Amino acid sequence: MNRLAGSGIIPNLNLNGRTSMTKRKPLSTVVAESLAEKIRSGELQPGAQLPTEAELCAEYDVSRTVVREAVARLRSEGMVVPQQGRGMFVSETPSPRNFSIPDEALRTLPETIALLELRLSVEVESAGLCAERRTDKEASNIRSMMEQIDAQQADPAAVQIHYDYDFHLAIAKAARNEFIHGFLAYLGPMIVPRFQLGYVVQPALKDSYYARIHSEHKAIVDAIERQDGGKARQAMRKHLQNSLGRVRALARASGVEATDAKQKAARSLFKDMKTPASPGA
């Protein structure tokens, strides 16, 4: 029996007649590199959905575990991103070699991600409360604002990633909780000006990006109009998770590590807030 079989090592005869040992690449690496090349060559376009696990298993004649490891590697490198309930998609974030982000902006990426995670937790409930408490006039105004914002479809290089923040503030205001609205208004200047939309969306994909965002906005507004708090929360969560996913992909593609910057972000956020006085003070 050949003791090298299944070992991941194959014999290689060199010019001197000596046998050397060459270690074979793990199957997951082979699959990941093949998919990465398809992405780089344009065979898999930005925004395209990856084949299913079963399809990739059949194409490469490997197990699901191998496929999952390969896709996880691509995801860690920012080449693919998940879309909740739909699967994995080729990232729309331009490759770092195709764009330049100022160093100052790059340094704030971990902090921005931390703030977006915080924002998500608050806005999901904000949307639900809005659906349950809004007036007919407020619902109408929110739809009008959505239509106005979504119709602009500006050049990604000339608009901020969170260009729709006023739409989110209108929802928060109709939630009838001044703490929620005040908190999100406070976060706005920290989040909105940081990154151009062009950092995460290639110009050629502008139309499909705006169409998808409008679809996400519409799902939120439809639920608000139906006064369906559960669906409003679900739609808002999906919308913000997708947004957060794009910024995380940007961080991975740029080689930015989320170290202790999240803690620094929290300290920066609350440094000016006064500590409540002790009872009896």
Automatic annotation (TrEMBL):
SUPFAM superfamilies named in the record: GntR ligand-binding domain-like, Winged helix' DNA-binding domain
Xref: CDD domains: WHTH_GntR (cd07377)
UniProt entry keywords in alphabetical sequence: DNA-binding, Transcription, Transcription regulation
Every HTH gntR-type domain range: 25-93
KW Phosphoprotein (keyword) present: no
Keyword DNA-binding carried by entry: yes
InterPro entries assigned: GntR_C, TF_FadR/GntR_C, Tscrpt_reg_HTH_GntR, WH-like_DNA-bd_sf, WH_DNA-bd_sf
Single GO term (MF): DNA binding
Region (Disordered): 1-20
Official protein name in the record: GntR domain protein
Organism annotation: Mesorhizobium plurifarium
